[in-house]
Amino acid sequence: MELDEIFKVKGVLNVALFGSRAVGCAKEDSDYDYLVLVEDRPSYYCGWLELGFIPDADDPFYGEDFSSWRKGDINLVFTDNPDYFKVTLEASEFCKKYRVFDKADRCKVHESFRDQQKFLTTTEDKWPF
Fold this sequence. Notes:
By secondary structure, the chain is α+β, with helices and mostly antiparallel strands. The protein has helices at 3-7, 20-23, 47-50, 82-97, 103-123, and strands at residues 12-18, 32-38, 54-55, 67-71, 74-79. Strands 1-2-5-4-3 form a 5-stranded mixed sheet.
């Protein structure tokens, strides 16, 4: 499946490559990770199954803000949260810029970016100024 084909699926708002291939540390057998912003995250009753993608977990909604579906060497990470989409791409860019190539370290960077976003969104109405 080509990137432009993903955009043709109903409800897809944006798609971006992230992960090792976007950062520049992919190995020959690395998969292609695409972050997909959608109106509604896919369930078992969706067109993604018909395209050959299957969820990484028994419950397609296993993540609070994301779910991952695979087909061969393509990993689609779906989110219906624009903030999650934004900070995931920011974390990926950070890893690329600062050459954070170790997967465990990249995961920590992503987690830190998401934690900061959660903090900001939960406290924005509570600031005294």
